[in-house]
Design brief:
The chain is mainly β and 123 residues long. Helix content is 0%, strand content 53%. The strands form two sheets. Strands 2, 4, 5, 6, 9, 10 and 11 form a seven-stranded mixed sheet that branches. A four-stranded antiparallel sheet has the order 1-3-8-7, with no helix packed on it.
């Protein structure tokens, strides 16, 4: 079993920054990647970024490339999502997910999910 706990969401004005954290606990065998997804109000969950646990390869959605950075801290078992130059369209509930069965960008491929943290970007 793997548990994920997100934190760091909040309210920010356009152009501002936030850093989300996802702390992963439980068994580590089979944990191959951790990703961030988001779900805007009334829309489907969408891929934001992913990082592989071995090698730290990173992947981003085109909509956040150049603005968001995903990273991980082995010692703390934590994955971060640094979000800069935030826009109103970044408003969503953000979820971290772990252990993909295949495609890093597909929500349905992940076995474990956190409870989510809300990010609101508004003036």
């Amino acid at each position: 079993q793997v548990q994920l706990v997100e934190s760091g969401g909040g309210f920010v004005q356009p152009g501002g920054s936030l850093r989300l954290s996802c702390t992963v606990s439980g068994r580590t065998f089979g944990r191959n990647a951790v990703a961030w997804f988001r779900q805007p109000p009334g829309k489907d969950r969408e891929f934001v970024a992913a990082i592989t646990w071995i090698g730290s390869s990173t992947y981003y959605a085109d909509s956040v490339k150049g603005r968001f950075t995903i990273s991980r801290d082995f010692a703390k078992n934590t994955v971060y999502l640094q979000m800069n130059s935030l826009k109103p369209e970044d408003t969503a509930a953000y979820y971290c997910a772990a252990e993909t069965r295949g495609n890093l960008r597909l929500a349905g491929e992940y076995a474990y999910w956190g409870q989510g943290t809300q990010v609101t970007v508004s003036s």
